[in-house]
Amino acid sequence: MSATLLHSLRNKHLRSVTPDRGGGPRARRARSSLAFVSDDLRNIEKDIEATRERLAQTIDQLVYRSSPKTIASRQVAATKAYFVDPASGAPRTDNILKVVGGVVGVAAVFVLLRKTIK
Questions:
Q1: Rounded distance, CA 110 to CA 116, Å?
Q2: DSSP readout, 23-63?
Q3: What b/e string do you get for 91-116 counting C-beta neighbours within 10 Å, with b at 16 or more?
Q4: Which distant-in-sequence residues (6+ apart) come within 8 Å of 20 by Cβ?
């Protein structure tokens, strides 16, 4: 191939690959595709920031729920709710009697076992 043919092929290829610096159609396409990429990057950054915010809130909730103080207060509230009606504040005698009966039964078994072993 001749040098001029190679030179013209090279220039033709470079023109098709590189965008125009002026206001030609290649330059407009390049600018519009860059604007699209720019908008897409902004959307991705917003999504990442929103995800970070949600993760931070989730971590805060998990830290709060797994705190020993929070766990203890939940257990105290559940135990109180078992023995006292939260709506009226009246004691639940049926649950109280069940627990007292269980404690008396276990104590009686220990007393009987101790007397039979001696």
A1: 10
A2: SSHHHHHHHHHHHHHHHHHHHHHHHHHHHHHHHHHHHHHHH
A3: eeeeeeeeeeeeeeeeeeeeeeeeee
A4: 26, 27, 30
Give the helix, strand, coil percentages of the chain, each rounded to 5: 80, 0, 15
The C-alpha atoms of residue 20 and residue 84 are separated, in whole angstroms, by 81
35-85 per-position pLDDT tens digit: 666 778 888 999 999 999 999 999 999 999 999 999 999 999 999 999 998
Q: Copy the structure tokens of residue 82.
A: 């078992």
Return the SS3 of 66: coil
% of the chain at pLDDT higher than 70: 69
Two structure tokens written together for 59: 């971590």
